[in-house]
Give the backbone structure.
Amino acid sequence: MFQSFDVKSTPEHGKARIAALRGLFAELAVDAILVPRSDEFLGEYVPASAERLLWATGFTGSAGQLLVTESSAIVFVDGRYVTQLDQQVDTTVFTRGDLVGEPPHKWILTHANAGFRLGLDPWMHTGAEVRRIERALADKGGTLVLLPFNPVDRLWTDRPAEPLGPVSIQRESLAGMPAGEKLSRIARELSDKKLDAVLVTDPSSVAWIFNIRGADVPHTPHPLSRAIITANGKAQLFVDGRKINSDVGSYLGDLCELVEPSLLAKRLEELATGGCRILVDPDLTSFALIFMIRTFGGEVIEGDDPAKLGRAVKNKTELNGSAAAHLQDGVAVVEFLHWFGAQPPGSLTEIAAAKALEGSRLRVGERMQNPLKDLSFETIAGAGEHAAIMHYRVTTDSDRSINDGEMFLIDSGAQYVNGTTDITRTVAVGSVSDEQRRFFTLALKGMIAISTARFPKGTRGCDLDPLARIALWKAGADFAHGTGHGVGSYLSVHEGPQRIARLSTQELLPGMILSNEPGYYRPGSFGIRIENLIYVRETEAIDGGDQPMLGFETLTFVPIDRQLIVEDLLTRDELRWLDDYHAQTRAALLPLIEDASVKAWLEQATEPFGR
């Protein structure tokens, strides 16, 4: 299994661990310590050795920060994790903060005392974040203290070893462009901007540039590594040599110099001495590295990671690979749904369902000779009230039966060498209430609105986000997460900069892959999410229109549960889209399915509404 259902949360340790962190205040000369979820590479998903927020609080979510003061311990989370946080931490020790509305730098402005001294590990925070914190502290007459060691690491006596996942080559037949060409393009961009070098710190960007993948982080196939690329085309890749076999070493040796990570500071010093102009992305680079460049005499030039858009805008090979991966994954999910529907209500548990879906992906991968490499994240499998926890993680403690009269939400994804998938389906178990069917249909209307959107060049994710919500808004409801996130090409399932969300100002460009996942969640009762992956494309001309438009092409093909749809709430155009989508699903998947009973199920599940 690629997923564990072990209980990771340890809220019983929270009180003692917060007391131990406070015990370091005097030595560090601080009034507070900030502990982020991110690691030294600032990724969303981190290895076990970097689960510092989990160690300190018991919270298992993928986004958050802990602020420990003498009198409080605040865990800042976004709307996805409000319910989960309250269930996972000792609420007599921790209080909840708003990571979006009042993140730590805004909390300082409102709540910190004059002269407030905040300590943080400069490796765990971006340059942009540190700048915001410094400004807030200056307004309070406070001081930012760059800690000489990580306070959690000092106390974490049984901390796991750092990962040594092997590096592999992502062949050009899958990447669509040779690494040498990517390096040459970056070098030309640097030269054109009169820059001497760029420091690439995002492991996904490093993986994309060099056409390599790794196994250091759960469910995200990039190696924890950094790179320096100079305007003269030379490159240095900082990666632990124990991760590289002879074939990979030979391949990389033709592209760059392989350097041990411990030598990064020395190489930066050599480069920065004499005032070299070095490009860094302040939203992706640890403040420690920015500080280091300046200390060595280099000039930090802030700008976008040169791989950011290249990674986000998929080439034809990557799009074709993703489409093929989604068809394979669609077969696996359909086989799972057929099996799930045949089980009597109450006979399955959430863990049993998650295991069955992973097993289906493994079997189909073997049959289609494209093995499942990993899940793209831990499967969210929630029945009834558990589905209302947006990022619910089922464990052996929380596992329960999936019962008659409730909805079951399963959000899952897979990593294949030709693409990364992410799909959510909410299905009825027996006969569910009219209220649940109504909200399901309202969420579906939002999904269809995004799927059928047409928009001019320059449109941003924030411009489209309301389309997914308007039906829910009219019903006095909403959902507390973005409508869609970017997705990598056999890389991170959550990839920027593209998003469909209230705060997303990135222009949507042809080739960008995104999720389309409106939902509705009623705490303690039920939850709904319907998710397909889509990509931006140029569309055919619109009769009577006067400018070219963009739209979306759907990658995911799996039936949407007809039992949960209130037909009268859908317009004729929405029903037409649904019937067309199901017809495409049937045509695409039937030839790939071998079992006659699964074929019969798919034909029934994709019958048209006929209006």
About this structure: The first helix runs from residue 14 to 22.
